[in-house]
Amino acid sequence: MDLSALSPDYVRAIAPYVPGKPISEVARELGIPEERIVKLASNENPMGPSPAVVAAVTRALAELTRYPDGNAFELKRALGRFLGVAEDSLVLGNGSNDTLELAAAAFLRPGDEAVYSQYSFAVYPLATQARGANGIVVPARDFGCDLPAMRAAVTGRTRIVFVANPNNPTGTWVAPAPMKAFIASIPPEVLIVLDEAYNEYLPPEDRADSVGWIRQHPNLLVSRTFSKAYGLAALRVGYAVMDPAVAAVLNRVRQPFNVNSLGQVAALAALADQDYVARSHAANRDGLAMLIAGLERLGVAFIPSRGNFICARVGDAAAVFRRLLEQGVIVRPVANYGMPEHLRISVGLPEENRRFLDALAVALGK
Ligand SMILES: *Cc1c(COP(=O)(O)O)cnc(C)c1O
User: Fold this and answer.
1) What radius of gyration, in Å, describes the C-alpha atoms of the chain?
2) Rounded to whole angstroms, how far apart are CA atoms 63 and 195?
3) At CB < 8 A and 24+ separation, what contacts does 155-159 make?
4) 181-191 pLDDT, tens per residue?
5) Which atom of ligand 1 is nearest to the CA of 120?
6) Ligand 1 centre distance from Cα of residue 3 (Å)
7) Prediction pTM value
8) DSSP letter, residue 193
9) pLDDT at 20
10) Distances in Å between the alpha carbon of 328 and those of 22, 171, 177, 186, 332?
11) Which residue owns the Cα nearest ligand 1 atom 1?
12) Does residue 121's CB lie within 6 angstroms of at least one atom of ligand 1?
């Protein structure tokens, strides 16, 4: 008997998430020493963690036999102060991926609809389909969210609208004013999940007061993460800000200890080290400019990006991906997003960006 047949159709229909290829796997498969491999495939912070984080995690190692604080008292208090919100409007996640899943678990029933854009983050369809809900994919415009079309796709069955700003994998971005107008246009009984995983990579003057909008729009949930500019991808800590009534239902479907102890102390130390975040921002701005200049030199088209990554149009992306891999450079194919001619390249350290650009020139025969 095929036991997988016992699983609901809508679960079996899910296309599994395709992560960036790990360095160890490339080393094994291609016989390249790990230290020769450059990974620019998962939008990680290339700077390594803040020394304050390493110190905090090291101290916390002595307590590994204890369960974490399930309510993450200290981290929530610090985040509440940092954001100017009450602690009962915060929900923490095992990465912000978890908070996206919690929103879906709390609001989607089989047959409901969730609206999101073409080329938006892969987790939105995963979270939607796992509940037997239907994902309504709205065609993108110039690879970005077509907000009027997304508004028009909202029906009486819509429970959630997912929108990433900046968006991954395209790097496209919507300015605060049109985003605020879009949020105001969505019926109050539809939850808007505004995914700001790359918020810290925007220059401060372009960052929206999205958390402040929640007071006026209690159907807005703003999701952020410690995985990207804060440099903590391995420890899996994300958070979302929302109306306390919304937080109350998300907390009902949350695992009691979904944020581990090391993640909690690391996030607390990372939040306190805003200097690291500012340096991440500046390094990314310079690294992105370096990648853009290199792509232009090679005559390779790209999608303008506001994140810590960029999508380049290389033609047969699967073939170029292989040729980069053979030179020890891992980037991210995005064919699973319906973009078979693009590769997504995360911004690395200057030397890593140079390695990528040199390898790309070889891969393209230039
Ligand atoms: C990376 C990313 C996330 C979250 O990652 P976590 O590590 O789970 O916090 C969320 N949304 C988008 C758009 C991302 O690219």
Assistant:
1) 20
2) 33
3) 155/113, 157/111, 157/112, 157/113, 158/112, 158/113, 158/114, 158/115, 158/190, 159/107, 159/108, 159/109, 159/112, 159/113, 159/114, 159/133, 159/190, 159/191
4) 999 999 999 99
5) 13
6) 32
7) 0.97
8) E
9) 85
10) 12, 25, 43, 46, 13
11) 197
12) yes
How many CB atoms lie under 10 A from the CB of residue 235?
24
Question: Token pair for residue 297?
Answer: 């030199």
Which atom from ligand 1 is nearest to the alpha carbon of 238? Answer: 9
222-269: per-residue pLDDT in tens?
A: 999 999 999 999 999 999 999 999 999 999 999 999 999 999 999 999
Atom 10 in ligand 1: residue holding the nearest Cα: 197
Question: Could you tell me if the CB of 101 is within 6 A of ligand 1?
Answer: no
Q: Name the burial class of residue 255, with classes exposed (0-12), middle (13-18) and buried (19+) by CB atoms within 10 angstroms of its CB.
A: exposed
pLDDT of res. 32: 93
Tell me, using a 6 A CB cutoff, whether residue 44 lines ligand 1: no
Rounded (10°) angle between helices 261-272 and 73-83: 30
Contact 197 CB / ligand 1 (< 6 Å) = yes
pLDDT per residue as tens digits for the range 79-131: 999 999 999 999 999 999 999 999 999 999 999 999 999 999 999 999 999 99
Mutational test site, ligand 1, from 225, 237, 260, 309, max ligand atoms within 8 Å of CB: 225
User: What ligand 1 atom has the least distance to the C-alpha of 97?
Assistant: 8
- Nearest-CA residue for atom 3 of ligand 1: 197
Q: Are 237 and 76 in contact (CB under 8 A)?
A: no
